[in-house]
């Protein structure tokens, strides 16, 4: 599989060079693709790849890459559970989390909740949405501190965990907003640690790339971090099973342009990780 990917990327590079020379331009391929000389070439073939030309120096990444008409904030939680406590932990979450999701008193929604199947074992992943941004998050946190059932849940949960961490995220403007879907599905959370300063390039390339990954309704949501590990991107995908995942991912290579986009985004990545996850019973994403 790795050999096939390298061959496809190499083929994409050959086509990219050919197209650039035929247009009368010489493409300078640098490791980060973000040198000042390439930015100044406004009429270059490289710039034509961008869906939206933005200058990261003129505005915050959050304002350039998100849906400006909305103010959704997301929180993703990773809970590493003691192996002997996983069933009890799942039961506890299924008893408490849906009630918070359904209560309009709290301006938040449970987007999805999963157990990791392949990746970090004995792990739970929860994704929450706060409509109204940081004020909504603060309101929910303050109200939950007054919720006796939730505080009991937290105390009991703490006895079952080995560790936990979270991040606050915003959603990319060109991705779908996650909505409930019927199952059964498996979910893949692909996480990319980008090189600092490359988030705008990533967003510009993926604004094109997402069009190649919508044919089987596999795209669920795309997010980038605001608090926690920075320059981190999460892509969430849904598939019927592992074979469907393999077939869907392979089919993207049949579309002209996908290989070039892969070629240009790979140098932006410092580290990447994949989790295959199974929805809990209470998850709106099944």
Spans with pLDDT under 50 lasting ≥5 residues?
1-6, 16-54
Biggest beta-sheet profile = 8 strands, antiparallel, barrel
Strand content: 25-35%
Secondary-structure element order, as H and E?
HHHHEHEEHHEEHEEHHE
**Strand count:** 8
Approximate helicity band:
25-40%
What does the radius of gyration come to? 21 Å
Mean pLDDT: 84
Structural class: alpha+beta
- The CA-CA distance between the termini, in Å, is 29 Å
**Count of helical regions:** 10
Identify the overall geometry: globular
Strand line-up in the sheet with most strands? 1-3-2-8-5-7-6-4
Describe this structure in words.
The protein is of the alpha+beta class and 286 residues long. The chain is built from 10 helices and 8 strands. The protein has helices at residues 2-22, 36-40, 45-48, 61-65, 86-102, 134-144, 148-158, 199-209, 242-251, 258-265; strands spanning 72-81, 108-118, 123-131, 161-171, 186-194, 219-227, 232-239, 269-279. An 8-stranded antiparallel barrel has the order 1-3-2-8-5-7-6-4. It is globular, with a radius of gyration of 21 Å. It starts with a helix and ends in a 7-residue tail after the last strand.
């Amino acid at each position: 599989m790795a050999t096939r990917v390298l061959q496809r990327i190499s083929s994409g590079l050959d086509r990219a060079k050919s197209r650039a020379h035929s247009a009368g331009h010489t493409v300078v391929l640098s490791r980060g693709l973000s040198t000042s000389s390439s930015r100044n070439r406004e009429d270059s073939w490289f710039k034509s790849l961008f869906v939206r030309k933005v200058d990261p120096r003129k505005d915050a990444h959050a304002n350039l890459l998100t849906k400006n008409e909305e103010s959704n904030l997301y929180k993703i939680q990773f809970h590493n559970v003691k192996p002997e406590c996983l069933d009890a932990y799942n039961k506890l979450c299924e008893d408490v989390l849906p009630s918070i999701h359904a209560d309009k008193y709290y301006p938040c929604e449970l987007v999805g909740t999963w157990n990791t199947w392949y990746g970090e074992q004995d792990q739970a992943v929860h994704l929450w949405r706060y409509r109204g941004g940081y004020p909504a998050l603060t309101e929910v946190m303050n109200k939950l501190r007054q919720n006796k059932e939730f505080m009991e849940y937290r105390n009991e949960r703490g006895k079952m965990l080995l560790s936990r961490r979270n991040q606050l995220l915003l959603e990319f403007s060109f991705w779908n907003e996650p909505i409930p879907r019927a199952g059964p599905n498996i979910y893949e959370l692909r996480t990319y640690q980008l090189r600092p300063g490359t988030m705008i390039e990533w967003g510009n390339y993926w604004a094109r790339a997402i069009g190649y990954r919508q044919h089987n309704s596999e795209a669920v949501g795309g997010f980038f971090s605001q608090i926690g590990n920075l320059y981190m991107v999460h892509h969430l995908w849904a598939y019927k099973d592992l074979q469907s995942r393999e077939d869907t991912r392979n089919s993207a290579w049949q579309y002209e342009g996908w290989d070039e986009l892969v070629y240009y985004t790979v140098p932006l990545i410092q580290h990447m990780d994949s989790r295959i996850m199974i929805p809990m019973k209470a998850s709106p994403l099944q």
